[in-house]
Amino acid sequence: MYAPSLLSITIFLPLLGVFCIFWMNDKNEAARNNVRAVALLTSFAVFIMSCIGFAVFDPSQSEFQLEESYQWLEGFNSTYHVGVDGISILFVLLTAFLTPLAILSTWHSIQVRVKEYMIAFLALETTMLGAFCALDFILFYLFFEAVLIPMYLIIGIWGGERRIYASIKFFLYTLLGSVLMLVAILTLYHYTGTSEISMVARHTLPFDLQKWLWLAFFASFAVKIPMWPVHTWLPDAHVEAPTSGSVILAAILLKMGGYGFLRFSLPLFPEASQFFAPLIFILSMVAVVYASLVALVQKDMKKLIAYSSIAHMGFVTFGIFTFSTQGIQGALFQMISHGLVSGALFLCVGVLYDRLHTRDIDQYGGVVHPMPHYAVLFMIFILGAIGLPGTSGFVGEILILVAAFKVSGWMACVLGLGVILSAVYALWLYGRIMFGKVGKPAVGKLQDLTIIEKLTLGPLAFLVLLFGIYPAPILRTSEITVEKWAGLLETGESNRGDL
């Protein structure tokens, strides 16, 4: 048995931490440590709640579970309706797992306005969890848009020299796409008379209407993921964001675009999704190759990892629109794996930046000598990024490539080229930083990982290796839901009321 409000408690528990921190002061180091401790304990409690939800979740059922539904906005016929299925439960876990690690990584790096930073971070966690659990269009839109506010503040206040430019660019890009999605949501409400996602899914929409609605949702999700050519906000946001902001941005916020495609575009607009699939394939292939080539010439470590994220998300969008069980499961696994790997890579960059205050690759070399423990963990994440067998990155990529071959052999070869290029730029990055002689005196004096840094990177390395060797927990959790969706898309069945 489980508490009937388990999901709501999980979603809004971070706000309890916000309330507590609001009344605290951060005038001295001891007070700031108390603020950090409350934020960390709150986020860890959210992780425990998400684990309880996962424990009572039944992966053999394709229907939504842990559902809660309460009437609100009565004049608009909208409900507070939350629940999880085999797909959303994984993103809830990923969010709840990474947030305390990201907060822990700020223990020494964030020294200014610590109280406000932790409030923004916990508020961000609530909005992300709410977006993954919402089963009402209006509720989803509120959470989906609310994500922008704390992330905008995190980049704009605690970011680098060009933080204002990066935060405004991030906000405008994502807001513009979301406005079009709001128009589509209002159109669906006018056409169906409800904002309940399951009720909307019971209606068979005309093909012409599907196409326009699909494009409106696409505008929002393509920017969020981000797809080429609406990707240019991401490198700037990553470079200027503080380390923990980059972790959440890469590991969670980008996945909201892929989740949107899975939750809305495919099941609600199946005919339009099939119609626009060739467009998605072309944009995905361009993203994989283009972003990989751009990553090859980067000298800023953060910017290189940002472009690698764009390339990896190209695999995700291609896999989703193959409409096959292998492709969709591969895309889902790739998103979870990328969340772990990319988050870890940004943490690794943060470790070096905290010591030498530069992300310029040319300023390093021979780091393996003073930091052997760091070198081992960094290597695990690099191998995960290039999809080496035995790491989590391999499972998602191989499933997507198999599904891609069934669609088109030459398209699969283009994606395969992306795999090769990822190995080139990732190993080039590692080699330039780690190997060779210690060229600069400051590098030779670097201290190896602290206890806090080991506590943040260690669990990520463990999961990258665990899911590479034993991917069953992720695949088994999502299998029934994905098979059902893929089956409906293949048969063209119109009754999708329980999606």
TrEMBL record:
Record NCBIfam families: NDH_I_M (TIGR01972), PRK05846.1-3 (NF004499), PRK05846.1-5 (NF004501)
Q: Which PANTHER family match?
A: NADH-UBIQUINONE OXIDOREDUCTASE CHAIN 4
Give the transmembrane region(s).
6-25, 37-57, 86-104, 116-132, 138-158, 170-192, 212-234, 246-269, 275-297, 304-325, 331-353, 374-403, 409-430, 451-470
Q: Which family is this sequence assigned to?
A: Belongs to the complex I subunit 4 family.
InterPro entries hit by this protein: NADH_Q_OxRdtase_chainM/4, NADH_UbQ_OxRdtase, ND/Mrp_TM
Q: What is the lineage of its organism?
A: Bacteria, Pseudomonadati, Pseudomonadota, Alphaproteobacteria, Holosporales
For this record, an example GO cellular component is:
membrane
Question: Molecular function terms in GO for this entry?
Answer: NADH dehydrogenase (ubiquinone) activity; NADH dehydrogenase activity; ubiquinone binding
Sorted UniProt keywords: Membrane, Transmembrane, Transmembrane helix
Subcellular locations according to the entry = Endomembrane system; Membrane
Q: What is its main location?
A: membrane
Pfam families, sorted: Proton_antipo_M (PF00361)
The protein depicted here goes by the name: NADH-quinone oxidoreductase subunit M
Example GO biological process term? ATP synthesis coupled electron transport
What residue stretches are annotated with the NADH:quinone oxidoreductase/Mrp antiporter transmembrane domain? Answer: 134-417
The record describes its membrane topology as:
Multi-pass membrane protein
